[in-house]
């Protein structure tokens, strides 16, 4: 079995597929890629217990067909050091020795029989799947703005992922850890179906880091399994089991007062004051007036304090409220616009953060629960 392939193309594909492979595997063969040669195409597959990722790479001068396994880390590290050029793989089907020829040298690997590589098994599911297409750019954007809000609490496993709420004429991405919540709606995706599933964080990371933004992804999913396919990649994953909480219920129907502020100015002020907050509570206090807000942080342990004034526009009565410095910085880092609005009601109700203007056919909303302020 023999073929020629671009070293750069192969490296890009192998690096992408390696992201699904665990650093430690209970089944040794999963430390490897499965390489399958058919006609003029090489299929590279990596797997863990719940995910499988395959990349298709065009080859030339192919002679023979077959499957073999090669250590993933060794192959990626080797290809990383090879300048962009055509390289030739020559695999002895009897000894499983792999000889790789390139412009100024030769390297040898020993393969593992491809028949030892396990077949990916989806969870048993009798549901009729939902199938729809989406631009990868739009899908990745939905993950970008929601992933940070997912829970890391092992006692809330159903919230350790991003919920996809599928409607006939829209797709909603939602994530929450009960203290912050993000909801992103895109109406550019029209599946014609209705359903929902919870993507685990590893699946979200693979999709975000592997699929190119210029691709179109075809999605087939039930409540237990999902398959994402583009021209280059096919990703299969098991989904989180359970019923996702009704995220719309916690969003206030009407916060009557609106604060408008420059996002970058607020973010830098929150960062500076955040240096002086008690790390155990991360409380920053805000006293909001009609044209400016005072931000205060203090740490009674080491008796340090900080206070800053930031310009803003507020249409309500003077309000004092507290937020977690860490969570507030996360939200301000992700919001895409220069100016943002924060809808408020009183010190005990959550703040609702939005860009000053949503992009066409989309709607982004972030919610942050307040913290108790006893004095300012």
Summarize the SSE layout with pairings.
Layout: E1 2-6, H1 7-18, E2 32-38, E3 41-47, E4 51-58, E5 60-63, E6 66-71, H2 72-80, E7 86-91, E8 97-102, E9 105-110, E10 112-113, E11 130-135, H3 136-146, E12 161-167, E13 170-176, E14 180-186, E15 195-200, H4 201-210, E16 216-221, E17 225-229, E18 233-238, E19 257-262, H5 263-274, E20 283-288, E21 292-299, E22 304-311, E23 313-314, E24 319-324, H6 325-334, E25 339-344, E26 351-355, E27 362-368
Antiparallel strand pairs: 1-5, 1-7, 2-3, 2-6, 3-4, 4-18, 6-10, 7-8, 8-9, 11-16, 12-13, 12-15, 13-14, 14-27, 16-17, 17-18, 19-23, 19-25, 20-21, 20-24, 21-22, 25-26, 26-27
Structural class: alpha+beta
Helix content: 10-25%
Q: What coarse outline follows from CA principal-axis ratios?
A: elongated
Q: What is the helix tally? A: 6
Radius of gyration: 25 Å
Number of strands: 27
| Distance from first to last alpha carbon | 74 Å
Enumerate the spans where pLDDT stays under 50 for 5 or more consecutive residues: none
Q: What profile does the largest beta sheet have?
A: 9 strands, antiparallel
**SS strand fraction:** 35-45%
Q: Mean pLDDT score, rounded?
A: 94
Strand order of the largest sheet: 10-6-2-3-4-18-17-16-11
Which tags fit this structure?
single chain, 376 residues, 9-stranded antiparallel β-sheet, alpha+beta
